[in-house]
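thoughts on these C-alpha cells:
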Amino acid sequence: MKATETLHDRGQSLWLDNITRDLLETGTLSRYIDELSVTGLTSNPTIFDHAIKNSSSYDAAIRKKVREGKSGENLFFELALEDLTRAADLFRPIWERTRSVDGWVSLEVSPLLAHDTASTLAAAKALHARAGRPNLLIKIPGSQEGLPAIEEAVFAGVPINVTLLFSSEQYLAAADAFLRGIERRVAGGLPPEVGSVASVFISRWDAAVKDKVPETLRNQLGIAIAKRTYKAYRALLASPRWQRVFNAGARPQRLLWASTGTKDPAASDVLYVSTLAAPLTVNTMPEGTLKALADHGKLGGILTPDGGDSDDVLAQFGRAGIGVEALANQLQDDGAKSFVSSWHELMNVIAAKSHDLAKAS
C-alpha cells in the first residue's frame, strides 16, 4: 500500500498544492485522484504565475479573451475559474460522497485587497458566485483586516479557506471569526453547514530560522508549531461553544497544513507529511512532495491531542533567542507581501502575453 493511501486511511485528506491547465488536459489530476488518494486542491497567485509564465497552454485562451476586450485581473480570473471549475468537477463526486467534508478546490481573492475588509468580502462573494460550484473555497488571509471579512463571508454562506496562518494564536483568531459567522447563521435560522479550512503554514518557520539556531534545532520549529496548533484545534472542537453549533448541524472547520514542501535539501523530502498525520485534518502538498510520498514515503505516528513535545521544543527555541509570537506576525506579513509580489508578476506576465499574442494574430 502506498503511503498516500495509508495517510488517507488514517483520516487525513491529501490535497494537491498546484493547478495548471496541463494537469487537467493530460489527465494527470484525474490520475492523482484515482491512484494517489488526492481529494482536493489549492492554488495561489504564485502557482498561477508559474503556470501561465512557463507554459503555452493558456495562449489560445488569452488570445481569445484579448479579442473580447478583456485584460488584467478580469482576464486572469476567467482563466483561473476555467481551471478551477474543471478541477472542482473532478472532485465533485468526493464532495458529494463525503457530504461536503472533502473534495474542495481553492481560489484566492486578489492579495492587493489584504488590508481592505469590505473589498475582500465583496470579491469573495463575487468569485464564488461566478464559479457556480459548491465545492469551491475562497481564500482570505487570516490577518487582522481579513478576520471581519471571514466572519461576514461565512455568515453569507461563502465557503472559506483561511490562508496565511502561522501560529496557534492566529489559528484561534481565524477559527473564532468562522465560528461567529456560523453562530449568526444558527441564530438567524440559516443552514449552518458552511465549508471551511484553516491553513497553517509550516516550512516557512524553519526557513526563517535556519541560520539562527544550533544544528540540533534545524527543521524542528515548523513541526513544533504544528503540534501546538493541533492541540489548540482539538481543544476548541471539544469546547462547549463548538459542541453547541455541532448540535445545531454545523461542520468543523478543518485544520490544514500548508507549505509542506521541504525547503532544506539536507532534510527528508516528506518531512512535513510523515510527521503531521492526524484525522480530521488536511495536508496540501506540492506535486513533487506528493510524488515523493507515493514513491518512498514512510509515515510516523499520529499527532496526539496534547501537543506532544511541542512546549519543550519551543522552549529550546526561546532559549536560542527566537521569539515565536513576533516571528509569526513577521511571517504572516512577509507571506502577504510575497503574494502581492507574485500578483504583480502575474499581471505583468498576462499583460506581456496579451500584447505578444494580439500582435501575432
Observations:
- Residues 324-360 form the longest helix (37 residues).
- The CA atoms of residues 97 and 144 lie 35 Å apart.
- The mean pLDDT is 96.
